[in-house]
Design a protein that fits this description.
binds alpha-D-galactopyranuronic acid; 31 strands; single chain
Amino acid sequence: MERLFDTHEIRKSRECAPVWTLTTLDAGGLTAPEKVIVPSVWESHPALRRYRGRGVYEQKLVAGGNVRLWLGGVSFRARVYLDGELLAEHYGAYTGFEALAQNLPEGEHTLRVEADNRFDADSALHIPNDYYSYGGINRPVIAEEIGNVYLTRLHVTPRKTDDGWRVNAQISVRNLGDQPFHGALQLSLNGKEAAEEIEIPGRETTLYDLSMDCGQVTPWSPESPALYPVKARLLENGEAVDDLIDRIGFREIRVEGKKILLNGHPLLLKGFNRHEEYGSFGLSAPAEAMMQDLHLMRDLGANCVRTCHYPNDPLFLDLCDETGLLVWEESHVRGFTEDRMRHPRFMEQLRQCTTEMVEQHYHHPAIFIWGSLNECADDTEYGAACYREIFGLLRELDPSRPVTAALLERPGGKVYQDMDVVSINIYPQWYHNTPAQDVLNRKLLEAARGGGENKPVIVSEIGAGAIYGCHDPFGEAKWSEERQCVILKEQITAVLSHPDVMGIFLWQFADVRVAEEWAMSRPRTYNNKGVVDEYRRPKMAYQVVKALFGQSRLS
Ligand code: ADA
């Protein structure tokens, strides 16, 4: 399932058949081709649990004319071929990309997708890390039939006016043909319509701005997540020849002093860091598992989730829109020293991931903030310049949402003044024994002195580990469920009783597999700080968190 709703009424669009043939090309792979389901990660196949290499997926496609393939996510390098011809290449597991074939003869064609999850020198963002870089086609592959002129982008931004709501829409149209195109664009939302005549020269893509009043609407909020379909249509001689459909929510996010306001109401955020991963399904969890996570997080008293440390599946974001769970989404990078940030491809790959994230997830009303550069070198001149560049890019791509980055506990941060919301990751009583209150106060003072004064503060990570089923009746042994309860209680109480802190994201919702290179500091080769394990079995901490999150502010 790609999305929760139809994204086209006019354009013919379908998900490729689910069973593909997988062959591997490197040592440690399959001995013969296998039938596999797409989307999935190849680590869910028993022979490929630890395979790092190339996998070739093949599928037949009956089509003709111009075919636009949309690959929602391939982990983590991709090459797409149709009948042997290379159509597209892409880097990064967590965002989608297009592969276009023009003037295909009608009939059966062979689609071949090569996925590659090797940690080679060209990969700056996917490295052995405290989560797993899986292999395979991890999100749906969509095949669409398009004409010579088609819609490539729809960005709709709601804006509150004195007497209701207005939207500004940006719509891009691409002309693949040599001849100029004359036609019209139509935008419809909540029973209202706006239209514009257009003319696009051959071989060009043109961007149009349309805006319109929306009449009476129900605003989107976590308590009442009202969603509206928005449709863009391309007309030729009065006939609709192409369309894009998405959903929006009417809400504005603003930062005012130490508060984050959603339609004017201050947010007190209580939630989780959640990696996109579920037991042996890895990165490709089915919709039911995503929904179960939302139910569990809500049951725990959460109103928000952070998609550490990369963009998430649009299907998960749809579910958040639908259920009203607020989302901090961030582009892909975790824990880089300056050396790693100086990788020759680092900024290019991060810019690409950041751009694709905002472009592809722009509409989700649940996303209230953009983040990037989790725990990188914000304490050096070079590192700080990278932060500033990415904040600038995020603001340019989307001026309607605030930006932030989760910064390390160590002192010396140089970018507090550059973000809209100050976010800090702290691990008192887990990685050291300083009381949570003291660490928090020290960090807040540093942020205030470093230019973050009078800005909202979020504790973007805090937590402790426990191995599911490991017990210590005295509550003292680290990795026991009892000790995790003791530490979380102190941490959550310190954060939620602090008047200057507007939010907490616990590290973390569920246990996650980590790269083998991390095994010596991560028992079971898992990051075990989940409140539930990788199969969502609750640890003792579940009830502790639920009780504390159930109160509004603690004192
Ligand atoms: C960091 C990091 C997380 C995770 C966590 C931990 O704050 O951002 O990805 O590694 O620490 O478990 O130590």
